[in-house]
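Hi there. Long-time user, first ticket. I'm pasting a complex I've been working with (about 676 residues overall). I'd like to know whether the download I got is complete or cut off, because the file seemed smaller than I expected. Thanks.
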Amino acid sequence: MSSGGAHETERDGSDGRTGSRPRGHVRLRPGDRVAVIAPSGPVDPDRLAAGCEVLRGLGLDVALGKHVRDRVNLNEDRAVRDGWYRLAGTDADRAADLTDAWCDPSVRAVLCARGGYGATRLLDHLDWTALAAATGPEPKILHGSSDITALHVAFGARLGITTSFGPMSASQIVAAPAPHEDGAEALAGLRAALFGSGTIEVPGTSVVRAGHAEGPLTGGTLSLLTALLGTPHAPPPAAGKIVFLEDVTEEPYRLDRMLTQLLQSGWLEGAAGIALGSFHDCGDPDEALAVLTARLAPLGVPVLAGLPAGHGPRQLTLELGAPAVLDTGARHLLGGTG
Amino acid sequence: MSSGGAHETERDGSDGRTGSRPRGHVRLRPGDRVAVIAPSGPVDPDRLAAGCEVLRGLGLDVALGKHVRDRVNLNEDRAVRDGWYRLAGTDADRAADLTDAWCDPSVRAVLCARGGYGATRLLDHLDWTALAAATGPEPKILHGSSDITALHVAFGARLGITTSFGPMSASQIVAAPAPHEDGAEALAGLRAALFGSGTIEVPGTSVVRAGHAEGPLTGGTLSLLTALLGTPHAPPPAAGKIVFLEDVTEEPYRLDRMLTQLLQSGWLEGAAGIALGSFHDCGDPDEALAVLTARLAPLGVPVLAGLPAGHGPRQLTLELGAPAVLDTGARHLLGGTG
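Hi, the file is complete. Here it is re-exported in full:
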């Protein structure tokens, strides 16, 4: 691939090391090659095919990871009972697909087909020297959400780049949206994030604590952030940053326990603001919001809830690591420009 | 209360500081006063009453914590919707009940009525100077399980004492055992742990990795151990210890994620052996055991599964911090002597 045009120039003077401002990722152009991989759970073949068609519809040249159709159980065994397939291949194979895609100079974006479970297992299998060596001044895009939060944290911290959090190609809302899902909006958001270089506006619905905040965007899926605490893969402190949080199928007491752990870990100390996405199937929505409010409002920074990002029927795409503005007066989060 | 008889003598020369051998707790005698408190979820009044009757049947003088019947939501608000009561009082009130009981010289054991959720929140509200000052050469008993794991870890690490992990007075198996539950065995185990000074044998059903190991017993409910990682309340390393693990309503992928986090945190490095209790309602039991096997057998130490301790229909009582022997040939864990 070409090493890029004017619209892909590095956006700051960062050297990519942790603590400095992350380098914004490239923007795609029609015809660009993207690699679709499955770093977590096994992918339904029909969904995979439908998602690739959607990506081709965006003008992209889609390459598939070697192991994207693999499926094994948590014991990394292929000969298992029905219903025990939880991973899209062994940890080593999924790590190889990710590394191969990231290190292939013809690939401009690595798109995760789906989440599920397994990304935290992958972290011990990645060759960060090789991944860093393949991360040039115009970093390629890593795109995914949910379980992929573990990769966002690792790529952001270790490679000093922004990454793209949003609906995945083989997820229902992209590949086969249900009537209650806004598939068109999700696809438009994905297109804007991958191809566009402008600001993305993400509206919120509920002001938990009023105010205006600016800082790089961090965070992701709450249960994945807490699953990294106490490990070498723990997220760097959120001080000075706007923290995005969302989750799915976590009861209010689990949300409270995870927020308690984040708070006790000190991770949220000095955060500039909190942007809350969807908490889909997390019990009574009012109780979930009450829990989020009780734990986060005392931080004393702006908190905006109800952003259409995460696992809900509306899924916009966010650029983690990129500068963002949270404004509860305007009821929105602005970000997306790397 | 008396400062104790011959059977309560300190069992080693420990000064109670972290790293030294924990001091074994006292053994109760008929007529001893015990305090029943609720550090986590709200207690059903009928269950509370039935559980207290059971304790009186053991010859104990039962005192109730001031807030044991309180109930508030996770926002610490009393005026909430039905079904939102998750805590037996505010964090400050639950912490006060625990501190008052521990510091009352007439109380010889602090028995948690039930688990549920809320113990990790309590940890920031406890006055460890006061609790340590009230911990004499013959430490009283702290008894509970499940969510109370957070208190076991804290009391063991900060006060240098053994604690008692087993069925709680207002839990179903003690207060109103269902037909499928072995209430008689649970009560006998509780009695032996509270009053006895001999060795308790806990049989296992499945040898995951053969061998013989000795060391102090540590661990508890897996999800609580992981909820402490990365915080000031994280459990001290399990090196040289026998690790007991159990859980309830955690799907196999969640078990795997938690074990991955424990492993990545380094907590399990150098563990002497692993004793697995019940993993009740954790999906397909065979899959749960396969997950436990895949993650723990590579540690290279003895692993015995199927111990009747935790949330299942059989619930023996274990003494955390006390010397233990794990022998897969004999298929048992021996412990309980402080």
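A couple of notes from our side: Residues 1-18 of chain B have pLDDT under 50 and may be disordered. The longest strand of chain B covers residues 212-221.
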